[in-house]
Amino acid sequence: MRRWRTLSLQARQLLAASLALVAFLGFTGYALDRAFVDTAQNALRVRLETLAIAYVQGSEFDRGRNFIPPEIPPDIRFTLIGQGLYASVRGAGLRWESESVRGRSLPPVELLGPGETRFEGPLRIIDAHGMENAVYSYSMGVVWESVDDFEVTFSVYEDAAQIQAQVIVFRRALWSYLGVATIALLLLQLGVLRWSLLPLRNVEREVARVRAGQSQRLSGWHPRELEAITESVNGLIESERSHLERSRNTLSDLAHSLKTPLAVLRARLEADAGNEELRAEVETQVQRMNEIVSYQLSRAARSGHALFAAPIEIEPRAEEIVAGLEKVYAAKGVLCEFEIDGAARFHGELGDLQELLGNLLENAFKWAGSRVLLRVQGEPAPNRRPGVTFEVEDDGPGIPPDKVERVLQRGVRGDERVQGHGIGLSIVQDIVAAYRGEFSVGRSEELGGARFVVRFPPAI
Predict the structure, then answer these.
(1) Counting beta carbons within 10 angstroms of the beta carbon of residue 401, is it exposed (0 to 12), middle (13 to 18) or buried (19 or more)?
(2) How far apart are CA 226 and CA 236, in angstroms?
(3) What is the pTM of this model?
(4) Do the Cβ atoms of 417 and 292 come closer than 8 Å?
């Protein structure tokens, strides 16, 4: 059983198609064979019926009910022994057989009523040498009105060897041609399967090249049935590569950030500072390093995301975040309004959704005068993962267009320890980039302050 499960796709398709092809051709051959046999038997029946009618038309009976055959029989073989064509007449006290029957024993004939006919076969007869042969017979019941409505049964027989020879020739030709056709179709089928599975083999080779480090990603030239797979594989590759790159950058940033406090400590040690002064400096720098390490670790933890995740309902998460922010900024009396599409869902990790909404809303609460607006709109797409758009607006001072690039700048060491635009918006950018989304900053037409838009488009 396990052996069958490990069959390749090509072997599975070839086996299934071959069995179906052989079954189809076998059924076709059987149907053609039966059709030919039925046709041959029907032709024989018509021929025997014609001979029987000709015998009836050319025959006579005398007053003594003696049968007088035609001077010239319908077929010369009725007068020749061993030619396979026989005739007989049966009636009350009447038994007549053609000369060709000499030395043979015909099968018994059942007397038929007027107008009744019967075609039978193959029937067994015994020849002069005691050998068994088979014949087909056609019998018809006739009333001879000129002889007191004398009822007789005319029968005509023909050896089955002739029709059997025709069937043998036909079957030999039929199965020979079907055999050749089967082999040709199997070879054609093998070629078609190899051609149709060529894209899968190409994907396999490309995956091997990526695994060996000879290529960075799968190519985009694949049939549309494989596009979803190749794009997903490329997404996994790029996600892994991006995760590794972000991890390296985080370690690099951490090492670079720790250089300054370590350099300060070294300088204070070399300067022979007093114990109290050195203690205070160590405490300050250790606190600073602790803040740097905590931030960089949390930043590294946020660097990855699940490529395929269950959809998360957005409104309950937003309500939780806003409830907490309203407590923190209770003194400002900021009111947050929701315009959330009930069908909108976030396809990703819960932590990423919380970080995204938390940083955008906290930034809005911090700079708002009295109003914050959160809009969430779903973006359905048939046969694809739906998209979603987040918009956060406030009535604060806003961000001048010439300062947007600086506000969104990443890696600014002086701001990384400060709670504000630097860290929060940098985290938002990281999350948006990880999910291949779009992030823009502008001015709110409705509230007059800043307007942050995050869009995650539909994806395969």
Answers:
(1) exposed
(2) 15
(3) 0.47
(4) yes
Distance between CA atoms of residues 89 and 68, nearest Å: 11
């300060």: which residue's tokens? 264
| End-to-end CA separation in angstroms for the chain | 35
Best CATH choice for the domain 311-456 from the list 3.30.565.10, 3.40.50.2000, 3.30.70.2860, 3.40.50.300: 3.30.565.10
Indicate the Cα dihedral angle 248, 250, 255, 261, nearest 10°: 180
Q: Report the alpha-carbon angle 65-67-69, nearest 5.
A: 160
User: Any idea which residue has 């549309």 for tokens?
Assistant: 224
Q: Where exactly are the structural domains of the chain?
A: 8-196, 242-301, 311-456
Q: Which string of DSSP letters, residue by residue, matches 232-283?
A: HHHHHHHHHHHHHHHHHHHHHHHHHHHHHHHHHHHHHHHTT--HHHHHHHHH
Which of helix, strand or coil describes residue 337?
strand
pLDDT tens profile 180-216: 988 898 888 888 888 877 777 787 788 888 777 777 7
For 418-445, the pLDDT digits (tens) are 344 456 787 788 888 888 899 999 999 8
Note the helical H segments in 271-338: 275-301, 315-328
d(C-alpha 112, C-alpha 153), whole Å: 6
Place of tokens 């976030």: 346
Distances (CA, A) of 339 to 316, 350, 378: 13, 21, 11
Please give, one letter per residue, the 3-state secondary structure of 92-112.
Answer: CCEEEECHHHCCCECCCCCCC
